[in-house]
Amino acid sequence: MGKAPPRDPGQFYGGNGPTMRAGDTALRVAAAVLIAREAGRRSLAAAVALARGAGRPFEPAADRLVIAPPDIRTADPTVADDILAGRFIFSGQMVETFGQSPFVAPPVSAEWERVLHGFGWLRHLRAAGGPEVHDEARALIEAWLRQGLRNPVAWEPDVAGRRLISFLAQSPMLLDGCSAAFYRRFMAVIGLHARRLRNAFERVPPGLGRLRIAVALVAVAVAVDSFRPRVKAAMKRLDDELARQIFPDGGHVGRNPAAILDILVDLLPLRQAHAARGIPVSSGVMNAIDRMMHLLRFFRHGDGALALFNGAGVTPVSLVASVLVHDDALGRPPGNAPYSGYQRLEADRTVVIVDCGRPPPPDYARDAHAGPLAFEFSSGRNRFVVNCGAPPRTGDPWRDIARRTAAHSTVTVADAIAGRFADGVLERMAGRVLIAGAQRVEIDRQEHEGAVAVIARHDAWLVPFGLIHERTLRLAPAGDRLDGRDRLIEEGPRRSGHAPFAIRFHLHPSIQATPLEGGPIMLAAPDGETWEFHVDGPAASVEDSVYLADPHGARRSLQLVVTGRAPAEIRWTFLRAAEPHGARRRT
User: Fold this and answer.
1) Residue 190 exposed, middle or buried by CB count within 10 Å (0-12, 13-18, 19+)
2) Checking CA distances to 49, which of 271, 341, 396, 455 falls within 20 to 30 Å?
3) Residue 412 phi/psi, 5° resolution?
4) What DSSP string runs through 194-254?
5) Distance between CA 541 and CA 559 in Å, rounded?
6) Alpha-carbon 108 to chain mean position
7) What does the CA dihedral 468, 15, 560, 545 come to, rounded to 10 degrees?
8) Angle subtended by helix axes 257-277 and 208-223, to nearest 10
């Protein structure tokens, strides 16, 4: 299977599809409300920041670090070798400095520059170890103080929050054997970060960046001796943010499975730092960690990677494993995440995960995907049906394409998008948020004699086409058969006019698809496991697709496509035909 991405993404995912004129008035009203709310939030945040600054004319200096919150992210000493050689490889892009400071080198992309100034890569230097490496790490900090301190990118709140967390976590390396002058400069910059982030907090848009800053402010209050009186206020800020962003079932309000991993990677070290200092951790943080651990396992496939929904992309499998080491829960993950809007069907080693939710609130929908009732299906370590996922770089041109309905394993009607993405003034104010989509989603989960079935329907196609999409998925008790049914049902005064539809099943790049004589399509994994795909009605075709959740960039893949005209009812089945090589056959 080649790794080069297709040249024209439109050939696989269609255009924007027909414009959804019906309901435009409601959309304009929603957009106006969002614009007004965003403008009001910015004005209020500025006033709050000004008032807080006026109330703190004299602040204690950051005197000394008494603890370093651990960094549980995986580290690679070979990355340190590249950095020491002047090769800075971030987000799949490299800048070679040829002995100069990386902070004066022209950035290859905005994403690369943000990673550089976030300093998360310090952990690789710490993993390499040795006095020479520690000296180089301090030299890079000194270079940033001279050449990067005033860079606007460096003080984007999310970047600065990442940097503060990294500086604290890697302080044992940075301060081991350092000079008194370096220690003073380092502590001064810690204090500068704490002050700036505290004053900027109210101006930060809702989302993961805001939550990360709340974590950073708690971490610095716990780690710096003179900031200990701030722990209570910082923890209250973090608790409030967790209450806003984490659902009772442990999912994130943005509905991105990878967001759970990002948050846990920051929260778990915070819990350890509190314990080490004898400071009680709030019940809000402890409960959030417990709930998110459940959902992390919920979204995990047999290969250790997370499901690709709503902005999830490349999964560092080793990082997932590192986080789950801290999980005390036993047994299988839950099958139902009702607040997050997902269902999980599991039998033996077969896993099916389905998106049965509505779009996130606009404040958290900047990366949301329009893929209602999309599903993924894996068997053991083999992922068969996937969504295309999101590329790792924010500026990647594929990122917008990946959000379209056709990039998901679900039903599309007339090549349209099941929703609408903001443009014009709203996009400039709030980003390219998903402002329309399924508003009514109904779910019925049934479990009987070991078999699990989910019946779900959504109304994203109701306004433009007068159609309701209903999807039924049933997993057999032995995990060797997945039956599906997709129905496009006419509802309301508007009729579909026999609109064309397509049911797409995107395949993982490792899966080969071979049509067999008589109708079924054989799906083969590298380890010899095979499944047959059968469809009752129109024949399925094998077409090109693209897989975007790969660390090396977009990869060619395949998709199974069933087409027809609405209204319609299509039944299909995945049936295991052969076990992996060396596996014991069940009796």
Assistant:
1) buried
2) 271
3) -115, 150
4) HHHHHHHGGGSPSSHHHHHHHHHHHHHHHHBGGGGGGHHHHHHHHHHHHHHHB-TTS-BTT
5) 8
6) 23
7) -140
8) 10
Quick one: angle between helices 317-324 and 283-298, nearest 10? Answer: 130
- Asked if residue 344 lies in contact with residue 352, where contact means CB atoms within 8 angstroms, the answer is yes
Structure tokens at 229: 């009186």
Handedness of CA 216, 313, 443, 574 (dihedral sign): negative
Contacts of 488 (CB under 8 A, 6+ apart): 411, 413, 461, 467, 468, 469, 496, 501, 566, 567, 568, 569
DSSP code string of 106-143: PPS-HHHHHHHHHTTTHHHHHHH-SHHHHHHHHHHHHH
Output b/e per residue, 470-495; b: 16+ Cβ within 10 A: bbbbbbbeebbbbbbbbbbbeeeeee
Q: Which two tokens stand for residue 356?
A: 């049965």
- Cα(108)–Cα(89) distance, integer angstroms: 10
C-alpha span between 377 and 573 (Å, rounded)? 12
> Both tokens of residue 186?
């380092």
- What's the CA gap between 196 and 524, in Å, rounded? 54
Burial class (CB in 10 A: 0-12, 13-18, 19+), 85: exposed
* Run of H or E including 359: none
Let me know: does 390 contact 400? Beta carbons within 8 Å.
Answer: no
Q: Which of 65, 139, 132 is nearest to 99 (CA)?
A: 139
In whole angstroms, give the CA distance from residue 307 to residue 315: 9
Q: Is the pTM of this model over 0.85?
A: yes
> Phi and psi of 319, rounded to 5°?
-70, -40
Predicted confidence pLDDT, tens digits, the chain (587 residues): 344 444 444 444 444 443 334 345 445 545 555 555 555 554 444 444 433 443 343 456 777 899 999 999 989 999 999 999 999 999 878 999 998 999 999 999 888 999 999 999 999 999 998 899 999 999 999 999 999 999 999 999 889 999 999 999 999 999 999 999 999 999 999 999 999 999 999 889 899 999 999 999 999 999 999 898 999 999 999 999 999 999 999 999 999 999 999 999 999 999 999 999 999 999 999 999 999 999 999 999 999 999 999 999 988 899 999 999 988 776 678 899 999 999 999 999 999 999 999 999 988 998 899 999 999 999 999 999 999 999 877 667 888 899 999 999 999 999 999 998 888 777 777 778 888 889 999 999 999 888 999 999 999 999 999 999 999 999 999 999 999 999 999 997 777 678 999 999 999 999 999 999 878 999 999 999 999 999 998 889 999 999 999 888 889 999 999 999 999 999 999 999 999 987 765 54
DSSP 141-176: HHHHHHHTTT-GGGGSHHHHHHHHHHHHHTHHHHHT
| C-beta atoms surrounding 29 within 10 Å | 10
